[in-house]
Fold each of these.
Amino acid sequence: MTGRASAQAALETRRSVLRAASELASMEGLDSVTIGRLADRLGMSKAGVIGQFRSKEKLQLETVDLVMEDFRTQVWQPVRHLDAGLPRLLAACAAWVRYAADPGYSGGCLLTQVTYDYDARTGLVHDRIAEGRARWRDSLRRDIDVAVAAGDLPPGTDAPQVVYGLESLAAGITPARLLHGDDETEKWALHGMHAILGLSSMK
């Protein structure tokens, strides 16, 4: 195997491990992601898995990075080109609830899962999650501020409170869908987001 082919094979193996880690974390939490369990799921040796990441913490950090990458790809990338302010904010909300309702993981929205796993802890994994979520919150706040300045949202709109409301609705989708079997969560969440923005009459 050539050096380039070997490097590509190693990259594909790493990606397969991270995808398996993400799926496991969505079902059982990020703490369930261990070298041994991933080796069993993938039919690899423990040495083969540990050689990719060197430690459980490194594996968890890269799993979080993959989750953030998925979120950016499915939620932010499709709307980033739109006009700043209300047009992009509404499109982002629609993309966000679609992602939360069907993120591609059996256990539902993994971003929500890892947040609940680590919100009260300290350490590198906590910090990585907080940084990623802070970037998303900042993006939402900027568009809210632009929408207020343009007259599309009322003067005095409390951007942090609006962001909190939007996050709460998105976070409620997975338990409503998986725990209670609600099959209209995407519609309900989007209507709720419009209501928070003062646009409840929108279809």
Amino acid sequence: MKFTYYGQSCFLLEAAGKKLLFDPFISHNPLAKHIDIKSIEADYILVSHGHGDHVADLVSLAKQTQATVIAMPEITDWVAKQGIEKVHGMNFGKFTFDWGAVRMVPATHSSGLPDGSYGGNPAGFVLELDGKQIYFAGDTGLTIEMKVLADIYNLDYAILPIGGNYTMDVDDALIATKYFDCDKVIGVHYNTFPVIEIDAKVAVDKFEREKKTLLLPEIGETISL
């Protein structure tokens, strides 16, 4: 399984013969200006909520890639009105595709679309594919509901926001790993704006002291999971 980071909360998972793109926000991110967005391929685009820093490139990339958009019904309705025909609306539940299973799980946040319309509930995803279980929390604060995941899954990796202010910070993310019992974390949603800037070394050291791993790939970097 490969993970490619595109900045903020946007990343690509390559597994089970599919390419899954999450929360596409690239062309409007100054930190990702070196990314050639026209070269990105995807079979599915998964969207956690409707804020601009998660959907700015959603419509253009859905058209470019012909990917199926997986998101709350309010978001899939929004993209359908813009000419995107391949959509799969979900809410807090589980669906099994031919490549693996996806469960939508709650996130503590808000969700409005760029045109001001309601974006449905904010969410995260748990994916089961290629023999691994991956949790992407979306934009969320620390919430006790995360403990339920430990009863359902044996998570291999958690992809967590760590920038604070709008979401969990590094300390909250560490607590979250204890809730859902996962020792390997990929950090996202940090450094894009001044209010979510972090000291990466301090963050990594905090995880190491708890005998956990925090991975912070560079924008454009691909790592193997």
